[in-house]
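Researcher: Please generate the 3D structure of the following complex. Treat every line as part of one assembly.
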Amino acid sequence: MRKGYFGDFGGCFVPELLMPPLMELEQAMAAILPSEAFQSELRSLLKDFAGRETPLTFCPALSQELGFELWLKREDLLHTGAHKINNTLGQALLAKHMGKSALIAETGAGQHGVAAAAAAARLGLRCTIYMGAEDVERQSANVRRIKLLGAAVRPVESGSRTLKDAINAALRAWISEQADTHYCFGTAAGPYPFPDLVREFQSVIGREARAQMLERTGALPDYAVAAVGGGSNAIGMFAPFVEDESVRLIGVEAGGTGEPGCLHSAAINFGRPGVLHGEYTMLLQDEDGQILPSGSISAGLDYPGVGPEHAFLHRSGRVKYGIAYDHEALAAFQKLCRAEGILPALESSHALAWVLEHREEFRPGSRVLVNLSGRGDKDMDIIERALGA
Amino acid sequence: MHILERKIRLARKSGRLALIPFVTAGFPSRERFWGIVRELDEAGADVIEIGVPFSDPVADGPVVEEASVRALAGGVTLRGILEELSAHRGEVQSGLVLMGYMNPFLQYGLERFAEDAARAGVQGVIVPDLPFEEAGDMRSILRKRGIALIALVGPNTSEERMGLYSEVSEGYVYVVSVMGTTGERGQLPQEVPQVLARTRRAFALPVALGFGLKSPEQIAFLPEHLRPDAAVFGSSLLKHLDGGGSPRGFMEKWTR
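Model: Done. Output below.
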């Protein structure tokens, strides 16, 4: 396989001016990540600062109703409220070991921004978050959290004023600030080596879940299910299970409202291969190769591309990629709140929704593991508006 | 010798800096665009770079990005550019280069693009998000049609890396003057002489300097032996045109 590629997907389509920092990062990954010093520092941060390991929760009420076992990997219980902190602590620590003094990061809904700001504060790095101007308006609570954590927020006014434009702005900023700054990329996408780096730090999800399932049930799960936007929580869940042929892996993309012609974020299901943000992957684009706006009730899934490893896992057939629509995610959200006392993020609600919508397909007694990637507190306004409460 | 290299060398032979204006296709309006290209040609452009708009131009600053947004809103497409270029190419003497991001070329189909571009009189292509490692296919497909894939290097490109580009490049080498995106700057960064010196050592091709240029004085401050063979200007020209200025008016300060 070509370096930086997953089959045909991946690569490093960036301006020449970004090649030196990406090559520096690749070398740092090889030199620093395997060292015991780095690994023990990271373990301690994940345990004592972020709250790992996260629990594996069995859902008794839903399992009884569905006729199969529903298990949740509780990334929602992590510090800052989602799996994002696994990656930002890893990258911030790596940046520190590389001698960098600052982080920049993009954010859509603000979760990665908050997690990056928290990691930067903890490790004594300056931090600047690029955020689409529209997202700054609709996610004001996270903007305030980012600022309280000592990071600067740069609203991005160009393009569609959302996540994809925030990534463009952060890449541009990195061109001029690369000497002392690490770009803390938020998802398992972007130019090589980011897809590898983010998978490396998120795989702790699947490693823990795999061991916990074995310990609790004496067997591997029959299914592992995760929502896919850029795809970091999903690749973190899937990677440790890819070699386990008996485990069926399901990624769930956001289908938007489901009305004909609606905006959606299902790049694998409805997109075509192309180049955006440094990678060759599945993209929502028009016939001329211009990137189309995406849409979802879940801001964290609202992205017109997907990490290249997912594009590859789809093509190879190892992972199946389904779709959940806004209303299905909302229904799943309510169901989990009332049946199990857990308030999931709208992103994670998509994964759960797919399971509920496809309940007939599971053999009775199957063990179904869902990655509950984040908590729903951040989504209260959106959910109340959508439910008309 | 590739035709673009010959054009720049010819200008140097007559003792002047070769001039490479950049205009986004369809700017400032689709009606005015080809007239502007003609006028740039008549006013002394040696090579004209036409920008192919893309929705997500990561190497561009606000002026070129805004021009792209407007072009896309006005319905400019790569297909349309190539069709109109076929019709207008005969009116223009300058060398002609298309500058655009990878995805529109990819979706057009690289083989088909090379064929249609060659037929439309395109002599070079610049792809700002196609570094050496990813450029092999595109370069060889274009080369078969006589089109040069222009190398872009910058202040942080090592001489060793420049060597990689140098071995396979044709036409000219485009030196990015700043660690940043396109857009005019008051003065060139301090490290420009070192970058130019490195580029001269690594490349036998003519050297074009761009990103941030707005006036000839920026070049005049460079030591004579390091001065580039060509100057590329984009954002400052777009601003001039957008403010109602004529292409000739802009070119005059460079040809004086």
